[in-house]
Design brief:
Elements (H helix, E strand, L loop, with lengths): L2 H22 L28 H8 L4 E5 L2 E8 L2 E10 L2 E11 L7 H16 L4
Antiparallel strand pairs: 1-2, 2-3, 3-4
């Protein structure tokens, strides 16, 4: 089970326990609030292959760096000790991702899914009003 799933389960158990205690004391129970939306990032880099720039931005936010290299456009993302490199080439349908690579930076070990989740979460925070 992922750390975030364990944390969610522990928080839910604590909330349920507090509600039960309040109910036993005859106190009104706090209303449940909707959980925050999960980052809409991909679970694997393969999900990005063939994606258009607008789709990538919708899932990950704006890249930290964008540069042209010959016929390619390279986008670089960085968050939470992870790096993501995307290469776009022009196809008959327009610019599309043809290569994607996620990797941990530094000495910490990270899964590809965790890296992509952190990058997507950072993109959501950057796109949020007032950020």
């Amino acid at each position: 089970m992922a750390d975030s799933s364990r944390e969610d389960a522990a928080a839910q158990a604590l909330l349920d326990s507090q509600r039960a205690s309040l109910a036993a004391l005859g106190q009104p129970m706090p209303s449940a609030t909707a959980p925050a939306a999960a980052p809409r990032g991909p679970g694997a880099v393969q999900e990005l292959l063939g994606a258009a720039p607008a789709t990538v931005i919708g899932r990950l936010g704006a890249p930290r760096l964008r540069r042209r290299e010959g016929d390619a456009e390279v986008w670089l993302y960085s968050a939470g000790g992870c790096q993501l490199d995307l290469m776009f080439y022009t196809s008959p349908q327009g610019l599309r991702v043809t290569h994607a690579q996620a990797r941990a930076s530094g000495v910490g070990q990270r899964t590809e899914a965790a890296c992509l989740r952190d990058i997507a979460a950072q993109g959501q925070r950057a796109a949020a009003p007032g950020s």
